[in-house]
Amino acid sequence: MPALLLILVLLLPASVPAQLPVADMHLHYKWSQQDVTAPDDALHALDMEQVVLGVVIGTPADLALTLAEHDPGRIVPIYSPYREGGDWYRWVTDPDVVSRARAALASGRYHGIGELHLVGGFAARPARGDVLSHLLQLAEEYAVPVMLHTEFSRPDPMLELCTRHPRTRIVWAHAGAILPPPAVESVLAACDNVWAGLAARDPWRFVDNPITDPRGELLPAWRALLLRYPDRFMVGSDPVWPVDQLDRWDEADTGWQELGRFWDYHRGWLAQLPEAVASRIACRNAVALFRPDAPVNCTPRADPAR
């Protein structure tokens, strides 16, 4: 065998993760990203990472529609009530959010609601009849998923919500953000209407309770959890950067320029799972949840675009 061919064969296993098509279930396209990432730039980045389906949260919401207009077969816009930076903690007390969300879903242009932040110390505790409950009921009415970002030291807030709204399909952003596997499992075991996303569970964002060790190896407890619930996990990039301060007024968000960094990391641990499980978590679960009737191909290709 020629020396060059032998080298290529020896290097082949390292390239296998890059051949796996992915459904990115957590993309943002924000006012602070437009100047550095035009729609064509964003779609090119998705091409480079073999993203065959992208769930996009716009801030303001119609920015998600802008991407969808450029690639309607791939982009799934979901409605965000956030219109500017600080809305991530103000939305829960704004009663007009519900009527705006209803109008958005009634238009048929949005296919979900989110991302809605509930963060300890910032968000009011959910109660019956509040804005959050109405949005969860609205998602049930329109049969669309709602993405919730809970960031608490315990899983109790999510358990309360998913048990109170058992017919609403809930996408749990970041799988609880800072929660360890037993806490995540307590929610998945109690509520079959919850799917957990692992966007931003990486070495740069939610670093508490990481899913891999410093070498990128899946930690045993996380591996066991993924294998136990292969149909309930999804992966996304959450392209927000830099991470030390959200929505700076004087600095653009360059998250789309970091897309390769995020997906390289996720492909690394996905490659450690059985192929069928990796394909579900990387692609098939999100397609089944967000676009079940669309011809989205999650089959690995032999000629990666990268």
What does this structure look like?
The protein is built from 11 helices and 8 strands. It has 306 residues and is an alpha/beta fold. The protein has a single domain (21-290), classed as Metal-dependent hydrolases (TIM Barrel, Alpha-Beta Barrel). The strands form 2 sheets. It has a 5-stranded parallel sheet with strand order 4-5-6-7-8. The protein is globular and about 45 Å long.
Percentage of residues in strands: 5-15%
CATH superfamily: Metal-dependent hydrolases
Major sheet details: 5 strands, parallel
Cross-sheet strand order for the largest sheet: 4-5-6-7-8
**Count of helices?**
11
Q: Any idea what the radius of gyration is?
A: 19 Å
For the record, the CATH class is Alpha Beta
What share of residues is helical?
A: 25-40%
Order of helices and strands: HEHEHEHHEHEHEHEHEHH
Q: State the total count of DSSP E strands.
A: 8
What would CATH call the architecture? Alpha-Beta Barrel
- What do the pLDDT scores average to? 89
